[in-house]
Design brief:
The complex is a heterodimer of chains A (about 325) and B (about 220). Chain A has about 325 residues and is an alpha+beta fold. Helices cover about 20% and strands about 25% of the residues of chain A. Chain A contains 9 helices and 15 strands. Chain A has helices spanning about 20-30, 40-45, 80-85, 95-100, 125-130, 160-165, 205, 260-265, 305-310, and strands spanning about 5, 55-60, 60-65, 110-115, 120-125, 135-140, 145-155, 175-180, 200, 210-215, 220, 230-235, 245-250, 285-290, 300. In chain A, a hairpin with a 7-residue loop joins strand 14 and strand 15 (about 300). The termini of chain A are far apart. Classes of the chains: A alpha+beta (about 325), B mainly alpha (about 220). The interface of A and B includes residues 147 and 294 of A.
């Protein structure tokens, strides 16, 4: 595992990423040393580290030039991304995850792989994710609640993870289970949702190059409130499709149920593709609020702007029915 | 208890009482205004949180609802305690509830809908969550408009009947709150429980009144 530790003294999470430094590092990587892995840079940066207990863990990664911030998609700040979260395991207020997730134990972490798969078993995070191949992708994140952010994730294609365990040809769907640990997740002491949180994808969706397995954010190890140590991000779907803190990956030939569909089947479907033409029963999805904007004046794009890459997955499907 | 009543009634009669109530109603608005000021001058850019519109909507909505329920609490308290001067602040609370509801709706119209009438109409007509909110707001609008002394005189006995609609407004407001939640409806249910208690007290008082009237009728 290529995890380099780097001291940032006693800085809290909210202050660890001065954007200018972050950007300059990204720029440095993109321009000067495209061939050198970020890990090497991290090693240089790590010279002279001592205080392991207070160290922030920096990840080595290569920026993926296909998915970068643009004038239209400016990065949200680290603070915004880590203090405004829907992670009901920690409570239903947006600030709850940042407040309570610090107590979550993410080491050791085991992911159970089972179902229609050739290599079932219990895996560590490093067994599933090749930390030498980490890349950064800036993805638009569109919540079903009609707000959105732009986030620099660090991770690997989800397909690379699934290929390691070898789903059998009969596997048509994959189900992701989030950790259930009420002792560390106060939201799970209430029954506001059914626990553990379940999500699922069709195999061709999960194997699509855009589907991403995330282990980091802004060049650092993923903060707990964002789904550490292992979460999915499926950028053309509403945020709830992207399971966090994953402990089980199950391959199946039947379409699995997902938690929000169980909670309100008329409001949340299995597919949950971002679609401005299919309103949520309680609000329109035609526009979104690009946080921290006041105005909901960003037109929502079909498949969250990734239609050129994913629309073909749904050819011939009635997206109003399969919402 | 009787002594307490004397003290309370004296306090309610003091000249400071009305300004204090007025200021108390204004305080949530002042606090929010201060956060808006900090956010927009950059003194504290995160004063309104990552989603400022959501903060504005939630704060104004909650304040409006709590003032509506406070308005409805006045009469039961007065009837149960005899602190009759409380009645004088009911209108103030009600008008302030309308002011916060108006701010709430304005945020929705300006920030969510960008003033797009077609979009607003689509919401009101097709989304029960918005329909309920607009129903509550429309009632508060009518009640605020008929809250002047002149209107009270003009409407006579009909005024009281009209203003009983505040119960419908409170109920619609809470339903709007419940339907606005994705899954966690515990908070609006607490408000609903409070409203249910107010209803129960009102019914109890009405039953007692009727019984006394009946008794008075049969005793020569």
């Amino acid at each position: 595992m290529i995890l380099e530790t780097r001291t940032s003294a006693d800085l809290p999470w909210s202050e660890v990423t001065p954007e200018t430094i972050y950007r300059s590092r990204r720029e440095f990587l993109r321009t000067g040393v495209a061939g050198i892995t970020g890990a090497a840079v991290a090693v240089l940066a790590a010279c002279g580290t001592a205080d392991v207990a207070e160290a922030q863990t920096t990840l080595g990664f290569t920026p993926n030039p296909k998915y970068v911030a643009t004038a239209a998609d400016k990065l949200n700040t680290f603070e915004q991304i880590t203090t405004y979260n829907n992670f009901y395991e920690f409570g239903s207020e947006k600030g709850d995850p940042a407040k309570y997730a610090g107590k979550l134990t993410v080491k050791p972490w085991t992911v159970k792989v089972d179902g229609l798969v050739s290599k079932p078993g219990n895996y560590g995070v490093e067994d599933l994710v090749d930390f030498k191949a980490l890349e950064e992708r800036v993805y638009r994140h569109r919540c079903v609640e009609a707000w959105s952010m732009v986030i620099p994730w660090i991770g690997v294609p989800l397909a690379s993870v699934l290929n390691k365990v070898g789903p059998t040809p009969s596997a048509k769907f994959v189900e992701f289970t989030t950790l259930e640990r009420p002792s560390e997740m106060p939201g799970q002491r209430t029954n506001i949702l059914q626990w553990p949180y379940l999500e699922g994808l069709r195999m061709d969706e999960a194997m699509h190059p855009l589907a991403f397995m995330v282990v980091g954010l802004y060049g650092k190890v993923l903060p707990n409130q964002n789904g550490a140590p292992l979460r999915i991000h499926v950028p053309w779907k509403y945020g709830f499709k992207s399971g966090k803190s994953i402990v089980r990956i199950r391959f199946t030939d039947k379409q699995p149920l997902n938690t929000w569909q169980i909670a309100a089947p008329n409001e949340y479907g299995f597919y949950a593709n971002v679609n401005p033409n299919v309103p949520h029963p309680r609000w329109s999805q035609a526009h979104e609020r690009r946080l921290p904007n006041l105005f909901s004046n960003t037109p929502t794009q079909m498949f969250n702007g990734y239609a050129d890459q994913v629309a073909s997955l749904y050819t011939g499907m009635d997206l109003k029915k399969n919402f | 208890m009787r002594r307490l009543s004397v003290v309370v009634n004296a306090a309610l009669a003091s000249r400071a009482f009305y300004p204090i109530v007025w200021l108390a109603c204004f305080t949530p608005g002042l606090l929010l205004g201060w956060r808006i000021y900090q956010a927009f001058t950059g003194a504290d850019p995160s004063a309104l949180g990552v989603n400022p519109t959501e903060t504005l909507l939630h704060t104004t909505g909650r304040t409006a609802l709590s003032l509506v329920l406070l308005t409805l609490t006045i009469t039961p308290i007065r009837r149960l305690t005899g602190w009759n001067r409380l009645q004088s602040i009911r209108r103030t609370l009600g008008v302030w509830a309308f002011v916060y509801a108006l701010s709430h709706v304005t945020c929705y119209v300006v920030f969510d809908q960008l003033g797009d009438i077609a979009g607003i109409w689509d919401d009101v007509a097709n989304r029960p969550f918005i329909t309920m909110g607009m129903l509550a707001f429309s009632i508060l609008l009518v009640l605020a408009a008929t809250s002047t002394n002149a209107a009270i005189r003009r409407l006579g006995r009909r005024w009281q009947r009209l203003h009983r609609l505040v119960y419908v407004a409170a109920t619609a407001g809470i339903v709007h709150f419940v339907w606005g939640q994705k899954a966690d409806i515990r908070e609006p249910l607490e408000w609903a429980a409070y409203l249910a208690v107010l209803f129960a007290i009102r019914i109890g008082l009405a039953v007692r009144k009727r019984r006394r009237a009946l008794q008075a009728a049969v005793t020569p």
